[in-house]
Amino acid sequence: MTRDRRGDVRRTTRETDVHVTLDLDGSGTARVATGVGFYDHVLSSLAHHALFDLEIEARGDLEVDEHHTIEDVALALGRAFREALGDAAGIQRFGDARVPMDEALAEAAVDCSGRPYTALSLAFRGERIGSLPTQLVPHALDSFAREAGLTLHLTAAGANDHHVAEAAFKALARALRAAVSPDPRRDGVPSTKGRLGEGA
User: Global pTM?
Assistant: First the structure.
């Protein structure tokens, strides 16, 4: 695997202006500024544990609420991931991880299939973690997976919402890290059909 696996995506609407750069073969360096502190925290954690280099600059209509910013950042990040992955030749394709964070436990399984699908079960007790509404956490994950072309199964539960969310993003990170890692025994696309996407 010799090509640069980088994505560079700008998403601009009347509600947000988002710029994402992503390097799948990085060292875990992150610079994330969305205006939503806890979102910055979990996205930086995602990059750190996936060993992705990630930069996100986002301006959104936070005076309305956090929804547009959270969603559009996730969509742009998913598109950058898909762009960086390219045809997915030579990767492991599948990845899974179990991550504890104190009393919380998260389990993630991903398939870089090109077929977006999410099955999420995140047990939050409150309405917010800092300035991030907890109902937007599954929405962000679904938006990311949809644009990334991922099949994502993710569960997380615990007594502390901060721990639940952070464990979920760390589990996703470790699963993605495994899935995009090179398979030393494979040169082509990891599908019997010779391509990823519908039916692959």
Answer: 0.92
